[in-house]
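Is this the right way to post structure tokens for a design question? Let me know if I should format differently. Anyway, here goes:
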């Protein structure tokens, strides 16, 4: 009898616990929003006190892991790949895949937005909303490329500049492999540090259900349904675009290039999507992401390079939001966009997604660049700020899914994809 109860308890694995926490967080958050009066107790003690603090403790634990994990996993992966030729094959293929899906994402968003026409009839005058963007909003292709190279690797590590960390880690890993006879000890240290970070990640992930509950509770206790419903056409367009990107682009590409059941992928990858949705940070999802792909049969030498890279340059969900937002703001301000404007949006949004930090709500800053490229008022962003948290969570889930599909496609092309392992049933922890 006791043995049977123990087996039943073990059936509720990490993914189920995270999903249960997500649902409970939404329900509890809505109950707090509608049944506890606004005031010091609800807003300051509960929402911005208890829920914010505990949720941020978990986020910071994840953020604590991201930089060392990305550095050591990529350095160890490049060392294991062993030569620039193999790394070049992986790098070129994954970058082409990421750019291709980002372009498709923007095209899908613009087509869908022009069909639904969110914001039509709002008739807002320029200057009715106020919104200020911190820092420069100018976009330069040359500066974007130059910013890939760290002038100070220590500063890049300290500030968490992912693309610079990746470049530095690639160089270190390749040189360790090239000078293997003189770098045996250092190579072993890099490998062992990678294992340490993976072990630490699994320890922190045990706290994920608690962190997810408090993060979601705070979000929905703060928003309620009123703010969400007021922007229903914009939200519906973005969410529809995200779903189309998932089903028509990702699952179709996965089926075409790997000949595997794409719905099996969704079932196994769902915990990562749930975690990405809860944290709204693709960078914080990297540890669980790599672990899940490993369990799906992807060689870690590949995923340890492609996943951190994807969390930095592959922002398909963000691109969809930007495409819809451009049409929404143009409609709201009664501004007509030409074919040239739409082509400019496609190009600018693609460039803006490269090097963007995988942190919550960063899409609003890059959106300002896109708006300025076609002469739309930046203050239009003020209209969508209230509900951006919900959409940010959704598009982050799509971002990490695109990273995973790209990794599987590239791994399959290099015969680093164990399809037998992929077909195995999910083993819950």
């Amino acid at each position: 009898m006791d043995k049977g109860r123990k087996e039943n308890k073990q059936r509720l694995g990490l993914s189920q616990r995270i999903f249960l926490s997500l649902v409970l967080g939404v329900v509890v958050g809505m109950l707090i929003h509608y049944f506890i009066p606004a005031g010091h107790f609800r807003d300051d003690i509960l929402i911005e006190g208890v829920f914010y603090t505990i949720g941020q403790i978990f986020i910071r634990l994840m953020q604590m892991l991201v930089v060392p994990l990305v550095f050591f996993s990529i350095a160890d992966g490049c060392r294991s790949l062993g030569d620039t030729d193999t790394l070049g094959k992986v790098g070129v293929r994954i970058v082409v895949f990421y750019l291709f899906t980002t372009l498709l994402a923007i095209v899908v968003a613009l087509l869908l937005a022009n069909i639904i026409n969110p914001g039509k009839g709002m008739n807002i005058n320029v200057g009715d909303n106020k919104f200020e963007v911190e820092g420069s909003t100018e976009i330069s292709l040359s500066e974007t490329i130059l910013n890939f190279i760290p002038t100070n690797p220590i500063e890049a590590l300290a500030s968490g500049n992912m693309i610079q960390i990746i470049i530095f880690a690639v160089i270190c890993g390749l040189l360790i492999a090239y000078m293997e006879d003189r770098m045996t000890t250092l190579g072993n240290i890099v490998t062992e540090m990678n294992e340490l970070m993976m072990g630490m990640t699994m320890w922190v992930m045990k706290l994920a259900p608690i962190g997810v509950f408090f993060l979601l509770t705070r979000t929905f206790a703060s928003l309620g349904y009123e703010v969400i419903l007021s922007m229903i056409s914009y939200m519906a367009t973005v969410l529809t675009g995200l779903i189309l990107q998932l089903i028509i682009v990702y699952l179709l590409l996965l089926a075409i290039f790997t000949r595997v059941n794409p719905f099996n992928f969704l079932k196994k990858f769902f915990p990562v999507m749930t975690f990405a949705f809860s944290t709204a940070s693709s960078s914080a999802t990297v540890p669980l992401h790599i672990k899940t792909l490993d369990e799906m049969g992807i060689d870690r030498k590949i995923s340890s390079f492609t996943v951190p890279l994807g969390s930095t340059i592959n922002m398909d969900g963000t691109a969809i939001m930007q495409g819809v937002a451009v049409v929404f703001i143009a409609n709201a301000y009664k501004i007509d966009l030409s074919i040239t404007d739409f082509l400019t949006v496609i190009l600018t949004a693609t460039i803006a997604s490269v090097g963007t930090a995988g942190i919550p709500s960063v899409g609003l800053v890059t959106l300002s660049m896109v708006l300025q490229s076609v002469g739309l008022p930046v203050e239009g962003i003020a209209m969508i700020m209230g509900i951006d948290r919900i959409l940010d969570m959704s598009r982050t889930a799509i971002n990490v899914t695109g990273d995973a599909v790209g990794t599987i496609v590239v791994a399959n092309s290099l015969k680093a994809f164990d399809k037998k392992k992929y077909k195995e049933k999910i083993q819950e922890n």
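Format looks fine. Someone answered above. Worth noting: Residues 128-137, 357-361 have pLDDT under 50 and may be disordered. The CA atoms of residues 11 and 326 lie 46 Å apart.
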